[in-house]
Amino acid sequence: MRVPYVNDEQLQASKDLTEVAIIERVRARRQPGELLPLDRALLNSPQVADGWNSFLGAIRQRTSLTADIRELAICRVALINGAEFEWSHHAPLAKEAGVDERGLRGEAENEWLTVKQNAVLRYTDEMTKDVRVSDDTFQNLRNYFSSKEIVELTATIGAYNCCSRFLVALDVGERNGLVNHEDWVY
């Protein structure tokens, strides 16, 4: 970890009512669980933590994307960017949603994913590696998703690129040393 995690004593000591409200919103989103190391790193800047919590909460809990599509995109971003902490939280969700690990770790257009999932894999790869997406990839995506779903998928991929880069840059979860993706638990 490159920045200290805000601990429970620090959280309880806050007298600023705005900060207290932010802390409670972050805690509410994590119910019934505990604050994650990501939350504790972000809470070094309560205003950033609040915006992050609202944005990622919408991405994770209020889109129309199916779980397999959402978690496939999130895990693929984590894999490409080397964010093992992100992977460890989302790979079980991808597995639960029926995403085949071989497909997730494989090249785009692989036999272990559906054609729709392969379209997402290709789109995620291009967005994450190249930023620009080819017309062919985008047109293929249109075969399976509405405009609303494309916006939600694009926002999900963008949000988790932001998240993974934050995690890796600050070594949140203290897992930067696990660079061999084959060792990551699915």
From TrEMBL:
Gene3D superfamilies: AhpD-like. Residues 46-102 form the Carboxymuconolactone decarboxylase-like domain. InterPro entries: AhpD-like, CMD-like. GO terms for molecular function: peroxiredoxin activity. This is AhpD-like protein. SUPFAM superfamilies: AhpD-like (SSF69118). It comes from Talaromyces proteolyticus. The lineage of its organism: Eukaryota, Fungi, Dikarya, Ascomycota, Pezizomycotina. It holds the Pfam family CMD.
